[in-house]
Amino acid sequence: MNPLFVFFLLFIAGNASAQLQFKLALMPNGSTWGVFVKPDSSLQISEKTVTGSGQITIVAPSGFTYANVKNHSGMWLDNSRAYRPKANPDFDYISFGFITDQPHISYKPGKETLLITFDRVGKCPDTLYLIDNKTDPIINSPTINAGNEISVLDLGNLKVYQYTQNYAPTAWNCHSVKHLQRQSAARPVALKYDRNSHNSWFTISSSSTPDWLKLQFPRTVAVKPKALRLFDKDGKLLKFMEVPAGISRTKLDWGELPSGKYSLTFEINGEVLHSEELTRF
């Protein structure tokens, strides 16, 4: 870390605000993953930010391979890997270290910024996730360089922002709708979409249009963070949408999709609780 940056961190440590989160997500092409950073929506961040340090650690099944690492914001290097550590021998730990703030990482309250992407080699893995700094079995190992971290100095506000946690833990998933249903403890119920469809998890509004599916969640569901996935008839993932806790209405854009049959799955905490068959006319 730059010594000058360290000086500023110590100088304004009392103004530190640990409110930056990471997400690992499948990109629209279905074979590339991206890592995003998102500041808390309550932060007031100036344009004069300097990222001083950072690391992203991905936990993958042992033997997982990837290709075509691309930097989108900041320069990151996959410079550390722990193979099958004793504390978690079925997994490898892949760490991308922050090198420099070029291209400049832009931080917008409540908005995602794409940091890096990498491509899948081979079939979709059983799981893939960002390390949890608090609960992962190797996090306290003195010999393994693993963990998520980012430290940002805001020269405009004289504040420091730091990594705190991950969000959207199921956004990585590259499996088909059938696979998700098999993995779920619940038994998804398939219904025909007739513009007035109802189930216990959401309602597809009768005011939906050919371009927009409008969904409403009952109060007991709206208070929880949730996710929606739209698949084509062959099980290919087309859309992924996170719906934050407290949101009771949302809409899904499917206007660019051709007529045909689709499946919409509803998830809470990574578990598929409902799957609905839709027909786009």
In short:
With 281 residues, the chain is mostly beta strands. Helices cover 7% and strands 44% of the residues. Strands 1, 2, 3, 4, 5, 6, 7, 8, 9 and 10 form a 10-stranded mixed β-sheet that branches. Strands 14-13-16-17 form a 4-stranded antiparallel β-sheet, covered by helices on one side.
Explain the layout of strands and helices:
Blueprint: H1 3-11, E1 17-26, E2 32-39, E3 49-61, E4 66-71, E5 75-83, E6 91-100, E7 113-120, E8 129-130, E9 149-154, E10 159-166, H2 177-183, E11 203-204, E12 212-216, H3 219-222, E13 226-232, E14 237-243, E15 249-253, E16 260-268, E17 271-280
Parallel strand pairs: 1-10
Antiparallel strand pairs: 1-2, 2-7, 3-6, 3-8, 3-9, 4-7, 5-6, 9-10, 11-12, 12-15, 13-14, 13-16, 16-17
Tell me about this structure.
By secondary structure, this protein is mainly beta. It folds into 2 domains: 3-166, no CATH class; 177-280, Immunoglobulin-like, CATH 2.60.40. Helix content is 7%, strand content 44%. It has 3 helices and 17 strands. Strand 9 (149-154) and strand 10 form a beta hairpin. The longest helix is centred in the N-terminal third of the chain and has 9 residues, at 3-11. It is globular.
Tags for this model:
281 residues, mainly beta, Immunoglobulin-like, 2 domains, 10-stranded mixed β-sheet, 4-stranded antiparallel β-sheet, 3 helices
Strands, total number: 17
Report mean pLDDT, rounded to a whole number: 82
What's the helix count?
3
How many distinct folded domains?
2
User: DSSP strand (E) fraction?
Assistant: 35-45%
Cα(first) to Cα(last) distance is 56 Å
Helical content band = under 10%
Q: Any idea what the shape is?
A: globular
Q: Largest sheet at a glance?
A: 10 strands, mixed
Flag low-confidence runs. 4-14, 177-198
In terms of structural class, how would the helical and strand content be classed?
mainly beta
